[in-house]
Design a protein that fits this description.
alpha+beta, four-stranded antiparallel sheet, single chain, 19% helix, 94 residues
Length: 94
């Protein structure tokens, strides 16, 4: 069970011919928890005569996104994560 679920439209585009695209962020927390979870997803809707005739939602990303505390320790993504961390540190310190 959850409480306080919120949905935020991060981006909305009218693609024409009755097709719309939206990026949504949904946030909430489990009852009794102080932690918040977040889901980011895209929705594509097809409209005809003012009604949605098809809706497709997707959470698929072209690249995996890891939380900062779950950075890989080995392999190609570890090398990329280290490079990104170095860039972030460099921009903070100079």
């Amino acid at each position: 069970m959850s409480t306080g679920v919120r949905r935020i439209a991060a981006a909305t585009l009218d693609l024409g011919d009755g097709v719309g695209f939206r990026v949504l962020i949904q946030k909430g927390r489990a009852v009794g928890s102080s932690g918040e979870v977040q889901l980011r997803y895209a929705a594509v809707g097809v409209w005809e005569d003012g009604k949605i005739v098809r809706m497709t939602n997707s959470t698929t990303s072209t690249r995996p996104v890891l939380p900062p505390n779950a950075l890989p320790r080995s392999g190609p993504m570890a090398e990329e994560a280290a490079t990104l961390a170095d860039l972030a540190n460099a921009s903070e310190h100079g």
